[in-house]
Amino acid sequence: MTLRVLIADDSAQVSEMLTELIADAGRVDVVGVAESEDSAIDSIRRLRPDAVVLDLQLKPGSGTNVIRAVRSDPSLAATRLLVVSNHVSSQLKAGCLELGADGYFDKVKELGALTDRLAQMADAANG
């Protein structure tokens, strides 16, 4: 079973880079890209991805509002939310995890850890 991933980032260039980085034939499939808070929430509800790679800054909107929306919808409870951000304060990370994010990665320094986490999730799905 392929892990289905949605990317939500306000930068088309970053979304393209993330798609190239995380797509892994037969293991990880990027099923959609969203730039705004509303399009991210709509895409999550419509596409039902296994995981969302979520930037905190969306245009317009916020990744934290996406976390709140997903976590308040019982039908989306299984969706894994992996935040990627240039904002790396420990308070912000803790706040996102408290809201219900499943991981928080520095967009500059921890993309390798993000791809490792997605690979682990894909392996678990194929279990």
Protein architecture, described:
The chain is of the alpha/beta class. The chain has a single domain (3-118), classed as Rossmann fold, CATH 3.40.50. The protein has helices at 12-22, 37-47, 63-71, 90-99, 111-126; strands spanning 3-8, 28-34, 51-55, 80-85, 103-106. A five-stranded parallel beta sheet has the order 2-1-3-4-5, with helices on both faces. It is globular and about 35 Å long. The mean pLDDT is 94.
Short description:
This protein has 127 residues and is α/β, with parallel strands linked by helices. It has helices at 12-22, 37-47, 63-71, 90-99, 111-126, and strands spanning 3-8, 28-34, 51-55, 80-85, 103-106. Helix content is 45%, strand content 22%.
Instruction: Report low-confidence residues grouped into runs of 5 or more.
Output: none
Number of strands: 5
Head-to-tail CA distance between termini: 9 Å
CATH architecture: 3-Layer(aba) Sandwich
SS strand fraction: 15-25%
Shape: globular
Major β-sheet, in short?
A: 5 strands, parallel
Share of helix, binned:
40-55%
CATH-defined topology: Rossmann fold
Mean pLDDT: 94
Q: Into how many domains do the coordinates divide?
A: 1
The CATH superfamily is Response regulator
Main-sheet strand order equals 2-1-3-4-5
The first-level CATH class is given as: Alpha Beta
Query: Compute the gyration radius: what is it?
Result: 13 Å
Structural class: alpha/beta
How many helices in DSSP terms? 5
Instruction: Please trace the helix and strand order, writing H or E for each element.
Output: EHEHEHEHEH
